[in-house]
Amino acid sequence: MDPRLAKFLQTNAQWAAAHQHENPIYFDQLKAGQKPHALLLGCSDSRVSPSVVMGAELGEVFVHRNIANVVAHSDLNFLSVLQYAIEVLEVREIIVFGHYGCGGIKAAMDDEAFGLIDNWLANIKDVMEFHAKELDAITDPQLRHDRLVELNVLAQIKNLQQTSVIRKAIKKGITIHIHGWIYDFSTGHIKVVYEPANEPAPQL
Ligand SMILES: [Zn+2]
Q1: 99 is catalytic
Q2: Lowest CB count within 10 Å: 31, 62, 84, 117, which one?
Q3: Active-site residue, 140 included
Q4: What pLDDT, on a 0 to 100 scale, did the predictor assign at position 124?
Q5: This prediction's pTM
């Protein structure tokens, strides 16, 4: 076996034994069911592990990840996750979890052809086109990238609000709070870019 993978399995065995030792009913409690506090939509990037950087315990966060944390209305995978989270798990907090230094955002900005993924990145290009005036005015490429990361999170919040799942929940009188957070892996800190208490919808 690949030595790094073998190490992962070894570490897992130690981790499981340590938890079992520390709390003999730890795994029984997890087995009993989940009642996560939030649904998180994050990027697949290996440097972004939301539960790790937020110190979330197992069972606390229901997670979906894709390239550049996109909400696409044709994505049955994410929409199923969303429906299950809202209707079955009764999650009421949703975090759109972007990150600076996002390769998906960069690829969309650089406009290079990568094949199949270009179709996915078209979702980001839509955000870019919508905000072309603001983005074109930023001359520093790094700052322009950072701004697109932020605009993408806000755009995905808006997309979330337009999903049939969220609309249905609102019709039923259920309040869903959608938060926009951006992780910076160069510092380890999370920046809050959108809080539902502050305004009814992202200002785009
Ligand atoms: Zn990313």
Answers
A1: yes
A2: 31
A3: no
A4: 96
A5: 0.93
Does 144 qualify as catalytic in the annotation? no
Q: Where are the beta strands (DSSP E) in the chain?
A: 38-43, 61-66, 93-99, 177-184, 189-194
Compute the average pLDDT of residues 2-24. 97
Q: Is 102 one of the annotated active-site residues of the chain?
A: yes
Number of Cβ within 10 Å of residue 195's Cβ equals: 12
Q: Does 36 score more than 70 pLDDT?
A: yes
Q: What are phi and psi of 197, to 5 degrees?
A: -70, -25
User: Three-class SS of residue 7?
Assistant: helix
Q: What domains appear along the chain, each with residue ranges and CATH number?
A: 1-33 (no CATH), 34-194 (3.40.1050.10)
The SS3 call for residue 29 is helix
Residue 170: count other Cβ atoms within 10 Å of its Cβ. Answer: 12
Q: Summarize the confidence of residues 171-175 as an average pLDDT.
A: 94
Catalytic position from the list 99, 131, 145, 179: 99
> What's the sign of the alpha-carbon dihedral 127, 128, 133, 136?
positive
For the residues 83-87, what does the mean pLDDT come to? 98
Q: How confident is the model at residue 200 (pLDDT cuts 50, 70, 90)?
A: low
Please state whether 115 falls in left (phi above 0), alpha (psi between -120 and 50) or beta. left
Work out the pLDDT band at 203, boundaries 50, 70, 90.
Answer: low
**CA 164 to CA 86: how far, in whole Å?**
12
- Cα of 84 from ligand 1 centre, angstroms: 24
Q: How many angstroms separate the CA atoms of 19 and 2, rounded?
A: 26
